[in-house]
Amino acid sequence: MHSIKSGFLLLALLCIRLGAQEASSGIALPMTITGGGLYTHRLQAGDDHSSPIAGAFHAVLYPSLKLSSHWFVYSSLHLHSTPFYYYEAYEPEHEVKFQVVQAFVGYTRTHKTTSVVVKAGQLASAFGSFPLHYDDADNPLLDQPPSYAAYLRLRPDQLPCSADDIIYGNRYSTPKNFHCGGSSASSDGLTPVTLYGLPGIELNLSTHRLDSRFQLTNSSPANPQSLLSGSQHAQWTAGAGYTLVPGFRVGVSTFRGPFLDHAVASLLPAGQNIRSFPATGSGIDLQWARGRWSTSGEWQWFRFTYPNFRSSPEASFAYGEVKAVLTARAYLAARVGFQRNSHLTDLTERTDETFAPNRQSYELALGYRPNRWQLLKVGWEWLSISQAAGSRHQVFGVQLVTSIHSLSQAWH
Question: Which tens digits make up the pLDDT trace of 118-134?
Fold first, then answer.
């Protein structure tokens, strides 16, 4: 604890003496520190006697190094306690987690209206538009959109025997377990798109009103793996956007590749391997801003292919959010999202119900800036789940976000 306090004191002293400068090389360390609190009965999902109140923190550091006019190093380091995000409130454990979301070497070159950026290292997924904008200072609301936070009742390290195995085998338990072999570890399922990065290389190209990106990674955005993992499988993600008029952009993105773990490789049908059963995602996103109003939204579709299924699990997600600036210091924001899950067809029959309950979420937040460094957000979310009472899923939250932008040092 003493070393942590000393570290923050050193950063504060550096903040006084370093100024942001335009230079061919230098170092910078902006950061965002957030303290938050939740009131929700989600915290009582595993124990009715648990307190419905919890507090947590989220710190994001962005160390960057400018080596020359073309070469640079960038990183995004996240440290947070649980439950900070709304979906974490279902878990009884209180933990401190550290994630390296981005840590890459980059090269950039610009010619007239065309710019090229090449990155190599730990990268945020090129799928979707939210992964690069979920800093608490950028996110006008408190929670994350459904496809980046919700768990699906699917596992990449176990094989389901049938549709009933997916639907009924997990109905009354939080850990998801299939019964045709695989890992013996406990799992809550998979999230369709990770917010926490994965190793790879990426090419970004922008010209006039068009921007595009192509990414090769060591694993799927739905099942990210480290470079030391035995479940790595190369795959691609691509995306592009076009600015129709200033302030209005439309984008698309897609990914495809293996998502199953090596734990199930020996259990697959003869003549087939993990690459025979890919995960696929496609999405559309848009952003619009004019005056005091701004909106954004995404629609995404995913398919996770398993053996022994004629119709594998598919899920679609969508959300739309709007922000209205009320005064120079205050704004009001809202987000509506939904999740729809498919019916399954195994080797014998088609299910009468979807493989998981459909969901709708509604979130409202009021933001206020007491000064130019801080943002106070107060929010409420209501989650509606088919065939389940929704009152216990409501969340009331508050966050105080502090942004520090002045830690920098120029060399030339």
Answer: 999 999 999 999 887 77
